[in-house]
């Protein structure tokens, strides 16, 4: 893991090939418990190209000066992401 929240990533490389490419991230909260949402793409090895955008929300706990991932929620599609956005927007109106 990392001691700096800005260095946390979902990008993953295997045998010199980036199999999970991080496109962006937003740090939603900082502190002993931190939350980050990532936008990324997985490599389709058969086609040798990256697939559609995906999203994941990760929670990290900082212990002993290092961030450790404690939980994650993967948003499986753009439709699911839109549903989450709509629900949050409706709840925020109240």
Features:
single chain; 94 residues; alpha+beta; 6-stranded antiparallel sheet; 17% helix; flat
Summed up:
The protein is an alpha+beta fold and 94 residues long.
Q: Work out the helix count.
A: 1
Head-to-tail CA distance between termini: 39 Å
Describe the biggest sheet?
Answer: 6 strands, antiparallel
Task: Write down the secondary-structure element order.
Answer: EEEEEEH
Low-confidence stretches: none
Mean pLDDT across residues: 95
Strand content: over 45%
Instruction: Please give the number of β-strands.
Output: 6
Alpha-beta content class: alpha+beta
Calculate Rg over CA atoms: 15 Å
What does this structure look like?
- By secondary structure, the chain is α+β, with helices and mostly antiparallel strands.
- It has 1 helix and 6 strands.
- Strands 1, 2, 3, 4, 5 and 6 form a 6-stranded antiparallel sheet that branches.
- Strand 1 (12-14) and strand 2 (17-29) form a beta hairpin.
Q: Topology, please?
A:
Layout: E1 12-14, E2 17-29, E3 33-44, E4 49-50, E5 54-63, E6 66-75, H1 78-93
Antiparallel strand pairs: 1-2, 2-3, 3-4, 3-5, 5-6
